[in-house]
Amino acid sequence: MSELAKHDIETGQTSLGVEFGSTRIKAVLIDSKYSPIAQGMFEWENQLENGIWTYPEELIWEGLQTAYAEMAAEVKRTYHTELKTIGSIGFSAMMHGYMPFNAEGKLLVPFRTWRNSITEQASVELTSLFNFNIPQRWSIAHLYQAILNQEQHVKDIDFITTLAGYVHWKVSGEKVLGIGDASGVFPIDMHTKNYDQSMVERFDKLRSVQQYHWQLSDILPKVLAAGETAGVLTAAGARLLDPSGTLQAGARLAAPEGDAGTGMVATNAVRVHTGNVSAGTSAFVMIVMDKPLSKWHSDIDIVTTPTGELVAMVHANNSSSDINAWAKLFKEFADLLGVNISTNELYAKLFNTILGADADADGLLTYGYYSGENITHMSEGRPLLARQPDSNFTIGNLMRANLYSAFGAMKIGLEILADEQVETDSIVAAGGIFKTPVVAQKILAAVMEAPVTVMKTAGEGGPWGMAILAAYANGKSDQALEDFLDREVFVDQESTTIFPDKRDIDGFNVFMDRYKAGLPIEAHAVLTLNN
């Protein structure tokens, strides 16, 4: 047991980060030296209801309370003390999506997540209007599509926000967003560090928008940069987080952020020319730029770091979901044989078969598309496996093809950044896919054609990054965020770096030729395989 951790718990010097990911809600408590000391988790899955990917509103709170309760129980079990006060708290979540509320605070339609590909018309029209790429995932695209669809709820909108912004609002009363999360709601002006006012005005002047009583600036959350205080935990908020009544109000709150921003923090990739890759249900690479791209690209999101620096983001809607599905199948087979194997051991066994597989997966082709994929222009998802009759159909080749495919759509966007001569000095990777040592990191190095570093905290990921932002917002440093991370948080951080192997690069490139050529197969599956 750490005496420092026990002291920090009892004196309220801890920081808590809670992240609502696509498959789990995780709470990570850190001490004053930024080390994780307790955590809790709640697993959940999005649901496809009436053609829309969503999570029930009540599950948001059940998941939050469960994750918090698990974390608090670990505190009591490990440190023999109750968690009564927390110095600072931050909430983060999957970016984008759409949560509109009326003046009474009622959610007007079920939460529409980033995973939906239902806003193509809005995306195209707004991109043309702004001369700036507006992906289908962005909140403004969801709002405008609802307008184009003449949905009845639009007239009653008083406030729209993201999932992180919603939770923060309910526990603090503050309608704010961190600038990184806000940059996935509406384009940000790099000079003012706020929503681009000229684009706001263009939107408000649209004839279809002028029929409503609101203006866009009235219904968007306020934008805050990292380090700015975003309110405090209210008494009602403390009860929402901890219904047992043990947690006291008063914790300082950081601005709510998106998972992209917390991923940058967790990988120490907020400085210009740094980059990071996050892989989970979705996969994205983010590179902090020193200048804008020469033109907008439909496959590149322009977002920001939590401090408002310009970031090029390649976001693929699908990544590891099909790997998880195959792992579940193999687990079921192990159970049939009466073999007891843990989840971690199962993934390690499966991933390690990749090391002995054929470099190009010998003709196997997979698309792990559980939802639509914007980069390859698929409106819906159809997980798919195809192979040549004489392919070497082994577990190793299957898993290598799945892992290649997990980064396939992302690679197409990376090719655009290469053409734009976007430079990066380092790539750091995070996400559960990297928990098995070496394998995914080795494959990603081939995808990036650059060295890839994974830190010891890679499995902690976003919630740990949000806890760091919470500590930073609590006045832990008067330094710029990037200096704070370099000099205080990551100074002794353990990490491993793997350089790309030419055999893997060549094999992946052969696979990518197959991946691109096979896209009509996936498109036909979308067209013909219907419920």
How would you summarize this macromolecular structure in one to three sentences?
This protein is of the alpha/beta class and 531 residues long. Helix content is 38%, strand content 19%.
SSE layout:
Elements: H1 3-10, E1 15-20, E2 24-30, E3 36-43, E4 47-49, E5 52-54, H2 57-79, E6 88-93, E7 99-101, H3 120-130, H4 139-148, E8 159-161, H5 163-172, E9 176-178, H6 179-182, E10 188-189, E11 194-195, H7 197-204, H8 216-219, E12 222-224, E13 229-232, H9 235-241, E14 252-254, E15 257-258, H10 259-266, E16 274-279, E17 283-288, E18 301-304, E19 310-316, H11 321-336, H12 343-352, E20 365-367, E21 384-386, H13 395-406, H14 408-419, E22 426-430, H15 439-448, E23 452-455, H16 461-473, H17 481-489, E24 495-498, H18 502-517, H19 519-528
Parallel strand pairs: 1-6, 6-14, 6-15, 9-12, 16-22, 22-23
Antiparallel strand pairs: 1-2, 2-3, 4-5, 7-8, 10-11, 13-14, 16-17, 17-19, 18-19, 20-21, 23-24
Helix pairs in contact: 3-4, 10-16, 15-18
